[in-house]
Amino acid sequence: MFKATKIAAAIAALTVAAGAVSVAQAQEAPQPSFNYVSGTVHQVDLDGEKLNGFGIDFGFDVNERVFAEVQYFDVGDSYGEYFGSTYVEADLDVQQLYANLGYKVLEQDSTAVYISAGFAYAKAKYSISGFGSESADDNGFNVQMGIRHRFNQQFEVDANLRHYDMGDDVNDQELALTGRYYISDEFSLMLGYTAAGDDVSYTRVGATWHF
Q1: In this protein, which residues make up the domain named Outer membrane protein beta-barrel (predicted)?
Q2: Residue 182: strand pairing partners
Q3: What is the per-residue DSSP string for 170-203?
Q4: Domains of the chain
Q5: Which residue among 13, 163, 171, 172 is least enclosed by CB atoms within 10 Å?
Q6: If you compute the radius of gyration of the chain from its CA atoms, what whole number of angstroms results?
Q7: Rounded to 5 degrees, what are φ and ψ at 139?
Q8: Residue-wise pLDDT tens digits, 18-57
Q9: Is the pLDDT of residue 10 over 60?
């Protein structure tokens, strides 16, 4: 009886220890980041026209399942040409903003499957020296679904599909892929590519602070 009790106690102790190890391993598994601030350099290919500029991304967890994200960029280009003895310069500037609230549909191991929706805004301004300028802006909504996976402590990938609708002439889909390399738990370098419709794409590189 005494021997059986000792064996049972040993099995119980091993079970508790194994459970503690499993919990510790699960806690140590790297998770994809939803709390961050990124600064980026953008290059947008707008139907063959290369526009360069900067971008800012910001995200944070509202609770365990709900998160918020904001993405903004401002890009432009200038070029000039002589018409006789007169030099004419043209400038094009494009801005875009998404502000979304999202929900993590599935969060398991090092993977998060999510959906989000929110506000979409775009503005384009074109000016020619001596002739003035014109601008147009549109706003509407966007919906997004994606998957974010942390392979290990160093590498994370996010792939998502977004539909945006800002009026009859400004609605399409975007397919985006972003990779992160973590220098430390708090800082990472990022590289991303987005294809939007048939004639728009952009690449971005940047640095991110995770909190």
Answers
A1: 14-177
A2: 188
A3: SEEEEEEEEEEEESSSSEEEEEEEEEETTTEEEE
A4: 36-210 (2.40.128.90)
A5: 13
A6: 24
A7: -140, 160
A8: 454 444 444 568 999 999 999 999 999 988 889 999 999 9
A9: no
What's the rounded Cα separation, in Å, for the pair 102 and 117?
6
* CA angle (139 as vertex; 44, 174 as ends), nearest 5: 40
**What's the mean pLDDT in 155-176?**
93
184: its two tokens: 């430390």
Residue type, 32: P
Cβ proximity of 158 and 59 under 8 Å: no
Tokens describing residue 102? 């999202």
User: What is the pLDDT, as a whole number, of residue 8?
Assistant: 52
Residue pointed to by tokens 């800002």: 166
E strands, the chain, are 36-46, 49-61, 66-83, 86-108, 111-128, 132-150, 155-165, 171-182, 187-196, 200-210
Q: Which helix (H) or strand (E) holds 14?
A: helix 2-28
Q: 118-154, pLDDT tens digit by residue?
A: 999 999 999 988 788 899 999 999 999 999 999 999 9
pTM over 0.85: no
